[in-house]
Amino acid sequence: MTPSDISVVIPAINEESTIGLAIRSALLAGAGEVIVVDGGSDDSTILEAKKWGATKVVKSFPGRGVQLNAGAALVKATQQVVLFLHSDNQLNSECLKQICELDDPIWGAFRQQIDSPRWLYRWLEKGNDLRVLLRRMPFGDQAIFVSKEAFNRCGGFEEIPLMEDVSFSAKMRKVARPELLRGPIQVSSRRWRRHGVIAQTLKNWCIQVAFALGVKAETLRDWYR
Fold first, then answer.
1. What is the DSSP letter of 141?
2. Which of 7, 141, 142, 165 pairs as cysteine with 109 (C-beta 3.0–4.6 A)?
C-alpha cells in the first residue's frame, strides 16, 4: 500500500480560513483523493476548497457524523484506507507513509502537536496519547484512520449531533486495538484559547462522562455550545 491508496475526508462548516491548509497538508502527504463535505457554510469554504485542489467538494446536511459518512460513501472503490481530518488540523508530510508501514492497518490515530508553545498544551498532548494507549479511545482531532472494509463492517459513524468520534471508537475498539502513530498532526489551539485550557478540558471531560452515562447527544450539544 502507498499513500495514494488512502483517501482523506474533511468535514467543514464555515472554515474558509483553515480548509485550504488542511487540504494542502493531505495532498502533500500523498493522499489519493481529498473529499471535502460542507455542512451548510455561508462563507467561502466551498470556493476555498476547490481553489486548494480538493478532489471532490460536496454538500450534505450539517452534523459531523452525517458529513463523515457522506464523504466515506464517495471514496473510490480502489482505496484501502480512509482518514478523517478536522478542517482546522494539518497532516505531517509523513503521516500517510506511517499508515503504509503497518502490516495490517485496521484503524488508529496520531500523536498531536497543538500550535501553541504553552506548557499546558504539552500536557494535553500527552493525556490524549494516554487515552488512546490505555482506553483505546482516539478522538476526531487525532485524525482517525480506518480500513474501508472495517469502516463498512462497523456501520460507519453514528449520525448524532456530538460525540460521533467517541461512539465510533467505542465500536472499533471491540474490533482491534487502535494504532497510535508518531505523526504528529498539527492541531489548532483556537477552542482552548477561546474558553481557556482548563475550562475547556473540564467541559470535555464532563461531556464524556455524561455521554457514557447515557445523556442524549442533543442535550450534550446544547451544553457544549
1. G
2. 142
Find the DSSP H helices in 156-216.
164-172, 190-195, 197-212
Rounded to an integer, what distance in angstroms lies between the CA atom of residue 26 and that of residue 65?
A: 20
Would you say 83 and 138 are in contact if contact means Cβ atoms under 8 Å apart?
A: no
Distance (Å) of CA 59 to CA 43, 151, 220: 13, 21, 25
| Measured distance CA(104)–CA(214) in Å, rounded | 34
DSSP 74: T
- What is the arithmetic mean of pLDDT over 88-99? 97
pTM of the predicted model as reported, rounded to 2 decimal places: 0.92
Length of the chain (residues): 225
Q: What's the pLDDT tens digit per position in 186-199? A: 999 887 777 766 76
CB 166 within 8 Å of CB 100: no
> Which regions of 39-178 does DSSP assign to beta strands (E)?
56-59, 81-84, 89-90, 107-114, 145-147
**Maximum Cα interatomic distance, the chain, rounded to a whole number of Å:** 44
Locate 44 and state its grid cell: 467561502
For the residues 3-8, what does the mean pLDDT come to? Answer: 97
End-to-end, the C-alpha distance of the chain in Å comes to 41
Smallest CA-to-CA distance from 87 within 25, 181, 148, 11 is with: 11
3-state percent helix, strand, coil for the chain, nearest multiple of 5: 45, 20, 35
